[in-house]
């Protein structure tokens, strides 16, 4: 009824090629952003913000990173968590060396370190692909995780082996450390995620993104058209690891606030982020958000939602059900809807456009 | 290295033993990859699941050998289910999609196994299955080298199983059909081989291999979901040996097993220890650069 594009005529090419060509979509995005920036901090309580919204933002960013690599460029990676860890440790080291520089800048800069490591482990992708590449990224996962535990320089030689995030401020407000309020941390995460998503959207709609997709669809044809595979694959690794690194730094600085970082960035996390990408939709930015929301909220929903509905379910059983459900859903999505939740969203919008007529 | 030849021998022996177990897991991968082109990520969890089922049934009061037979039945049911639910709808999809689908199987089996049998580590029923225990001490190079009997049994059983599999592939009707399917799905279909049947057989065979691996591995340590991570070691083994070669899985397993034990023993302390967790992957990666098809793999010419 409201979602109809009749009468919206484009008179320039740029209007026709816009990311959101329909004004309802633009309004929708504005409403979502307004909700995220104003609604959530106003309505949500501390628990909701710090253990639902912040993890959601962190996972979304990591999923966007992996989606750039796996969804847009077609290179599989099982080492996302390790690259997140690189970001976290880089940010920690940087803030020890440069306590005067704002931590948000450092979080972004730590992404560059992660990108460098990502390129290093992406080098084999020039010679190998598919399962072979999965082994290369697994090597990154296990090697980096080992390094986080065994290289004391990384956690400043402290006895516990954990990294502790110091307190840092922005405009006089503490944004990291124990005294930072959930709202402030949420705002910082939100700004970072929105900014980086906008950046990613511009990347994938631009020349670089086109070359990634060409490599994904058929690498030989892409090469014939003059796309340099070396550049395309390595930039995909770099950008993907950059996003993962920033997500990892955010995870430690704004969510966990320290702790056993090496345990956090384990292979389970890598798999979970891969599942977010698969279920959300390969090759779709909005799918990364859907997938992150889905996978991150599933355990919570099962743990607290079902008992509230009167279905008794113990914590352990909820965990088992989560595993089974995630496994079953991956298979279901691969069979029924390989483009994931993002495609369902698209279909829904398409139906609305022609409503009440089916075609 | 020269000062302690007995320690060297001990290290090599331990490497050989873990190599045999890696090889057994890799064997399950190879079987499935050969016949259906599916890279089965779930092989590791199938090992855990088979062992858990066996121990779980025994704890419910089923006699040990009956439990083995029942577990085989469960693995057969699993093979049929996977073929029906996962493989048949996904036939002709890109390899990477099928690979991801096996992630789904992995997670489902983790949840299912934990829900049915509980997540705590269990003791493998080694005695009831007449597996030997204890150790043989050999006097070698002026020192003692201790060989666990269970390890020797594992090596023997693995060899027997590999010989049996080779004979099965070489001499039986089904084995011929499997080789035909491995060569070309279409050609096999056109001479009247049922792909669905073949897939069930292959996944069931992989299930049997998984059960034997599970028993052997469970007898050395406990049966727990921690094995799932260890099973990831099968990937470098496969790369080393070639994805389609049964002898390759064995040789690759032994190389990785010995390589990582020696590396841990001699170079591990230099850089902080625990390098076993990633050394295998680096050996495989280094190898990839020189011989991407592995030691015995088919050379697939694919320019990237």
UniProtKB/TrEMBL annotation, chain A:
Bilayer-spanning residue ranges: 27-43, 49-68, 75-92, 98-123, 130-148, 184-204, 234-257, 269-296, 308-336
Keywords: Cell membrane, Membrane, Transmembrane, Transmembrane helix
One Pfam family named in its UniProt record: BPD_transp_2
Main localization category: membrane
Subcellular location: Cell membrane
This protein's record includes keyword Transmembrane helix: yes
GO MF assignments: branched-chain amino acid transmembrane transporter activity
Record's protein name: ABC transporter permease
Protein's organism: Bosea vaviloviae
UniProtKB/TrEMBL annotation, chain B:
Broad class of the protein's primary localization: membrane
GO cellular component: plasma membrane
Keyword Membrane: yes
GO BP term, example: amino acid transport
Membrane protein topology class: Multi-pass membrane protein
Keyword Cytoplasm on entry: no
Cell location: Cell membrane
GO molecular function, one term: transmembrane transporter activity
PANTHER family named in the record: ABC TRANSPORTER PERMEASE PROTEIN, BRANCHED-CHAIN AMINO ACID TRANSPORT SYSTEM PERMEASE PROTEIN LIVH
Protein family per UniProt: Belongs to the binding-protein-dependent transport system permease family. LivHM subfamily.
Identification of the protein by name: ABC transporter permease
Natural source organism: Bosea vaviloviae
């Amino acid at each position: 009824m409201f979602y109809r594009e009749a009468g919206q005529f484009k008179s320039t090419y740029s209007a026709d090629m816009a990311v959101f060509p329909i004004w309802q979509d633009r309004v929708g995005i504005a409403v979502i952003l307004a909700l995220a920036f104003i609604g959530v901090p106003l309505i949500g309580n501390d628990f909701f913000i710090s253990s639902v919204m912040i993890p959601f933002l962190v996972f979304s960013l990591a999923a966007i990173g992996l989606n750039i690599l796996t969804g847009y460029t077609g290179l599989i990676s099982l080492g996302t968590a390790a690259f997140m860890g690189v970001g976290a440790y880089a940010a920690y080291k940087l803030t020890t060396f440069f306590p005067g520089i704002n931590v948000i800048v450092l979080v972004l800069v730590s992404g560059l370190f992660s990108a460098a490591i990502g390129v290093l482990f992406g080098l084999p992708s020039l010679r190998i692909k598919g399962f072979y590449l999965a082994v290369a990224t697994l090597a990154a996962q296990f090697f980096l995780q080992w390094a986080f535990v065994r290289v004391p320089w990384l956690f400043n030689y402290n006895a516990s082996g954990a990294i502790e995030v110091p307190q840092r401020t922005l405009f006089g407000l503490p944004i990291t450390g124990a005294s930072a309020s959930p709202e402030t941390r949420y705002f910082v995460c939100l700004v970072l995620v929105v900014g980086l998503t906008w950046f990613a959207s511009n990347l994938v709609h631009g020349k670089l993104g086109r070359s990634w997709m060409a490599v994904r669809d058929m690498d030989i044809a892409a090469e014939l058209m003059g796309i340099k595979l070396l550049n395309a694959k390595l930039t995909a690794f770099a950008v993907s690891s950059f996003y993962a690194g920033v997500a990892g730094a955010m995870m430690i600085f704004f969510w966990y606030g320290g702790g056993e970082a090496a345990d956090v960035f384990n292979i389970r996390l890598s798999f979970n982020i891969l599942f977010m990408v698969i279920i959300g939709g390969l090759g779709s930015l909005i799918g990364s958000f859907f997938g992150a929301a889905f996978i991150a909220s599933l355990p919570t929903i099962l743990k607290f939602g079902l008992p509230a509905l009167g279905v008794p379910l113990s914590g352990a059983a909820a965990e088992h059900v989560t595993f089974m459900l995630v496994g079953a859903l991956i298979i279901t999505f691969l069979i029924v809807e390989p483009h994931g939740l993002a495609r369902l969203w698209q279909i829904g919008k398409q139906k609305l456009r022609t409503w009440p007529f089916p075609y | 290295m020269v000062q302690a030849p007995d320690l060297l021998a001990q290290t090599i022996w331990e490497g050989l033993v873990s190599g045999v177990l890696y090889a057994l897991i890799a064997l399950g991968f190879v079987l499935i990859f050969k016949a259906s082109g599916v890279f089965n990520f779930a092989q590791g969890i199938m090992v855990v699941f088979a062992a858990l089922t066996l121990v779980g049934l025994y704890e419910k009061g089923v006699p040990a050998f009956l439990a083995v037979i029942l577990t085989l039945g469960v693995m057969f049911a699993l093979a049929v289910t996977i073929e029906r639910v996962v493989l048949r709808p996904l036939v002709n999809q890109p390899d990477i999609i099928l690979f991801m689908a096996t992630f789904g199987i992995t997670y489902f089996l983790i949840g299912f196994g934990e829900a049915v049998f509980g997540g705590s580590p269990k003791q493998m029923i080694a005695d009831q299955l007449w597996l030997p225990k204890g150790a043989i001490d050999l006097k070698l190079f002026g020192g003692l080298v201790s060989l666990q009997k269970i390890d020797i049994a594992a090596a023997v059983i693995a060899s027997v199983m590999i010989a049996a599999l080779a004979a099965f592939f070489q001499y039986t009707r089904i084995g011929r059909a499997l080789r035909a399917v491995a060569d070309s799905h279409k050609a096999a279909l056109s001479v009247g081989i049922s792909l669905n049947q073949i897939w069930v057989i292959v996944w069931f065979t992989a299930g049997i291999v998984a059960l034997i691996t599970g028993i052997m591995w469970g007898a050395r340590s406990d049966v727990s979901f921690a094995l799932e991570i260890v099973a990831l070691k099968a990937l470098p083994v496969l790369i080393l040996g070639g994805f389609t070669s049964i002898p390759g899985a064995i040789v690759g397993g032994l190389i990785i097993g010995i390589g990582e034990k020696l590396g841990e023993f001699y170079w591990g302390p230099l850089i902080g220890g625990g390098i076993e967790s990633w050394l295998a992957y680096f050996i495989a990666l280094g190898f990839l650069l020189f011989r991407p098809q592995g030691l015995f793999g088919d050379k697939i010419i694919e320019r990237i």
